[in-house]
Design a protein that fits this description.
This protein is of the alpha/beta class. 34% of the residues lie in helices and 28% in strands. It contains 7 helices and 11 strands.
Length: 229
């Protein structure tokens, strides 16, 4: 009897996978920590790649754990064009990273450029838009698409979907978001103290949390839709 097929989910952080993790449990198999549960009634396994994909080999080892019928890369992205709105879901059709060739993922979809570091300033985003022609920006899709294209995994359908988290022209907001991340990076709870919140600005903190909540909700909805046949 063949084992039941599983959907492979790849997300960068717990924040991006917040709602997905509510129906999953932490497990360890062959030395790989990941999460198992259900998504839209289907068996699913989720692996946190960390921003920029911390270890390609760990992603490969995760993809060897189960018999997958689909690999879905999900999370948030930045818009490089005024055509996209906040919280808009985006299917990625092709992806590139500076200096490399484009990888086609789907017959139709938006163009994505992946970089290895966080970009918040508008000038850098405008330059990426001009040089690549991409519509959105992230840190993981190109690396994951290359792994999914390897002979070992190429027979498994690969999808990349993103939710627009920030827009062109939101440099001040992104700097506040990065400041909050730096404040909480070394805290076991991952939460800022009241002193941190006052330093950041109570209103700015409230806006960041509100936006994070809406993005997570949309990511959960998109993830469920992508898991349906």
């Amino acid at each position: 009897c063949r084992p039941e097929a599983v959907i492979a989910l790849l997300a960068a952080t717990r924040t991006e996978a917040h709602y997905l993790l509510k129906t999953m449990r932490s497990v360890k198999s062959d030395g790989i920590y990941h999460f198992r549960g259900t998504l839209a009634g289907k068996q699913a396994a989720l692996f946190l790649t960390r921003p920029g994909v911390h270890s390609r080999e760990q992603v490969r080892r995760f993809l060897r754990l189960h018999r997958y019928d689909a690999i879905i890369s999900c999370g948030s992205c930045a818009s490089l064009t005024a055509e996209l709105a906040h919280l808009q879901s985006v299917v990625i059709g092709s992806v590139v990273t500076p200096g490399e060739k484009w990888i086609t993922i789907a017959a139709a979809g938006r163009k994505c450029v992946s970089v290895s570091h966080l970009i918040a300033d508008d000038a850098s985003k405008a330059l990426l838009r001009e040089t690549s022609g991409a519509d959105i920006l992230d840190m993981e899709t190109y690396t994951l698409a290359r792994i999914a294209a390897e002979h070992e995994f190429s027979a498994i359908p690969f999808y990349a979907v993103r939710v627009v988290d920030d827009l062109a022209g939101e440099e001040d907001y992104l700097k506040k978001e990065q400041m909050l991340r730096e404040m909480t990076a070394g805290k076991p709870s991952g939460r800022p103290s009241w002193r941190d919140i006052v330093r950041l600005g109570i209103w700015d903190y409230a806006v960041i949390i509100w936006r994070r909540h809406r993005v997570r909700s949309e990511e959960r909805r998109v993830g469920k839709e992508c898991s349906l046949p």
